[in-house]
Amino acid sequence: MRQPLSVVALIILLISGLAAAVLVVPAATQTASPAATCRLSVTEALQAGRIVNERKSYAFDSKIEAPKVFAYLRGGSRPSNAEVTTHMGKHLLALEDLCRELEQTPPTTTTAPPTTTTTTTTEPPPPIGFPNAANTGPTGTLTSSTGSFAVTTAGTVIQNRLINGCVEVLANNVTIRNSHIRCNSVNSAYGIRDIEGNSGLLIEDSIVECVNGVAGAGGVATTGGFTMRWSEVFGCENNVWVERDALIEDNYIHDTIPYNPQTDPHTDAIQMPTPTVNVTIRHNTVYGGYIDQSNFGNSAITTGVSTNVRVLNNLLAGGGHTLRCPAEHDTDFAWHDNHFSTIFVSTVGGFGPIDGNCQFFPHSGNVMHETGEPVG
């Protein structure tokens, strides 16, 4: 699991933002505003952590500390270090300390000649604004239990649980919230399995983990309507299998099982078979399996014949072709505003960011995450 954004990384982001802000204007006097840039970094940190306010602060392990941090951001007194224990809380305190220090420093002015240009070369900042381990999954104390079970009562809510087992959904309108499911997948089990055509499944603020992941293991598998958000899924052959009426939004889906030539798994972080109907995959971080050029998975997202399937504004990397589009070109599929990252390899996936079918479908605004170069 990836570590949360560090204070150092946020300060690097601030510094790189300041460097990028150095523009040259003919015979003009500029006033640098590091304090304003610092305030913008606080806003970006809040957005990256999906922190809306102290009542909806997913990045805080304790909802008690959130109001204290927000009071400090509004100009109040600083809570003690002992009162703030979460990673995000500490990051925000450090940024606020820096902002207040900068606000006490008089602004500097510089005059640039008309012909002067400034070029700044920096390493790209770490991804910000997309889901990661810091802003997905459960918070607080979870009640532990051991053993797999089936949910047979409509409207059941499973909440604040650490389940050392697998969950089968056999009813409508089941909610799994703020929980961690550790499914032993040696028998090709699924962490959450809902394949009886039920509807209304809701998964939020949870982790689904395939323990001892092997070929055939699955994280979340559904054939009916469901919504998944603010959750993390990893360690499976197919982390998510979805067929219809689904919204997959603001999740961190990553680390499928490594390739094994004996079992030949075709790993996908998200797989949509033929046919797939009415599915939106929006603003997730989705990483297909990639270890090196001799060991990578099939894709981050793969799609079959589709009706109203949309892949929108995701951070994607890994696999062979990171995004595999339908082979049938008269199907209703589109991909827009996605970011393709070189976090694993310069080609995004082992073969490339997209397969040859993607060009036949509506697409726009897709870019390389690190450079902004267009994809498609």
Task: Briefly characterize the structure.
The protein is an alpha/beta fold. It has 4 helices and 32 strands.
- The best one-word shape is globular
**Structural class of the secondary structure composition?**
alpha/beta
Count of distinct structural domains: 2
- Can you tell me the CATH topology of the largest domain? Pectate Lyase C-like
The assigned CATH architecture of the largest domain is: 3 Solenoid
Helix content: 10-25%
Please explain how this structure is put together.
About 15% of the residues lie in helices and about 35% in strands. It is of the alpha/beta class and about 375 residues long. The strands form 5 sheets. A 10-stranded parallel beta sheet has the order 3-6-9-12-15-18-21-26-29-32, with no helix packed on it. The chain has a 9-stranded parallel beta sheet with strand order 4-7-10-13-16-19-24-27-30, with no helix packed on it. Helix 1 (about 5-20) packs across helix 2 (about 35-50), helix 2 runs antiparallel to helix 4 (about 85-105) and helix 3 packs parallel to helix 4. The longest helix is centred in the first third of the chain and has 17 residues, at about 85-105. The radius of gyration is 23 Å and the shape is globular. It starts with 6 loop residues before the first helix and ends in an 8-residue tail after the last strand. The model is unreliable at about 1-30, about 50-55 and about 110-125 (pLDDT under 50).
